[in-house]
User: Fold this.
Amino acid sequence: MRRSVFATRLAALRKRLEHLPVDFVWVIQPENRRYLSGFKAEDMQLTESSGSLLIGRQGAYLLTDSRYATEAQKEAHDFEVITLEKGLGESLPQVLVRLGARSVGFEEEYVTCALFRELSKRLRKLSPPIKLTRLKGVVEGMRQVKDREEIKAMEKSSNLMTEILQEIISSLEPGRTEKEIAWQIEGLAKEGGAESLAFPSIVASGPNSALPHALPTNRKIKVKEPITLDVGLKLDGYCCDMTRTIFLDGPGRKFKKIYRTVRRAQLAALEKIHPGANSNEPDAAAREVINEAGFGEFFGHALGHGVGLAPHEGPRLGPHNPVKLVQGMVVTDEPGIYIPGKGGVRLEEMLVIEKHGARILTKDTHFYDF
Assistant:
């Protein structure tokens, strides 16, 4: 029988455990939990976990409550499901004692201060006490490189989003509001079989397009102004992310130059995205084009980011803390220029790094050739 992908990931995590001063890794971050176990439940809020994983050098356990126990048993075949009758703060120490744990590594970026304080207090009182050790990026580091099935899932989500975006762009007309367009995107995603949007759609027109993460408003779109559509959905657990800036009736002279500059910057960065490159090199290539055109002060964010089970994950394609790009990473290439009070242009492709370079997954062709 073919070894499950989750068993393979568990084995890889245990290899990392050999170099960590802990007996168990406690995984509570939802995407990490799904990546390692296949358990699909999502947390409604940070303080209400649908489950967490305890992974040791031998055993693997999924801790949940009665609301999710049946799903956990169906989905997490490589884990022993432990159904908790009380909250994590009270139940986790009991489970750790039963498993003979002496030290536990936890995801410091996803455990609240209140839960950490409660656990620390209870674990210190045990005899012998159990030590909590902060861990950062252990599973996230594994998730940065996608396997073939993950890339296929992201191709599917990208293809569906491409179809939706094409329908949206063809239906744009003066007088429609940003909110109406955002609601249409969400409706088409659900009709197409998406699990959900990957993130709330950004529909930003005119001056609002100068806000990189603008919220859709009741503003009506007009001709000759930028209309930025930053959209993504989740299919089979995996996200896509793409952005187009559209002009009804074409742009004026200034925005034609801005658009041309952003597109040139995007293509310059694309040439630098390949195995062995440092993650700051594509950002530098895009930034050089934008600086030379005189818009450097209006490009304030990093060039791109990784995409996978989450819409934003590693690696980051920015000017700081570079890492080596490797085959299998899925990243975005999204330069932008944003003029306060006037408007902005952002163009975004999602791509997978292959042996000889980058392959674009977001296939929408709505680009202008100014």
Observations:
- The CA atoms of residues 105 and 133 lie 5 Å apart.
- The mean pLDDT is 95.
- The longest strand covers residues 226-231.
- The chain has two domains: 5-142, 148-360.
